[in-house]
Amino acid sequence: GQQAYNFLPPDHKDKEYKPVSKNIRVTHYEVVQGPTMLGEDKAIQTAVIQYVLQDSQVLKEMIDKQEWRYDEEGEVWHLYSPVPTFK
Fold first, then answer.
1. Three-class SS string for 6-56?
2. What is the pLDDT of residues 6-26, one digit of tens each?
3. Whose CA, among 16, 37, 49, 79, lies 20 to 30 Å from 31?
4. How far apart are CA 9 and CA 28, in angstroms?
């Protein structure tokens, strides 16, 4: 969960940062649709994320629709959609 914040653009990290509970452990991440390019510097994709609530050992799954934008200066893709909320 915390690794998603590494993909946020620098100007989004402070306002978008919500610590992910240490009770959450991501067990699987799979892109199931896309990426679909929407121009030269923007793409969308859909991912399935499975995670475990460690205190109860409950496995959960979510579908995450993501928007990515390419930063030519840094030569890196950044996540512009919100980091998912693990419940």
1. HHCCHHHHHHHCCCCCCCEEEEEEEEEEEEEECCCCEEEEEEEEEEEECCC
2. 787 877 666 555 666 788 999
3. 16
4. 24
- Measured CA to CA, the distance from residue 68 to residue 42 in angstroms comes to 6
Local structure of 80: helix, strand or coil: coil
Q: Model pTM?
A: 0.78
- Give dist(CA 42, CA 52) in Å, integer: 31
Which pair of tokens denotes residue 37? 């390019």
- Whether 66 and 47 have beta carbons less than 8 Å apart is answered as yes
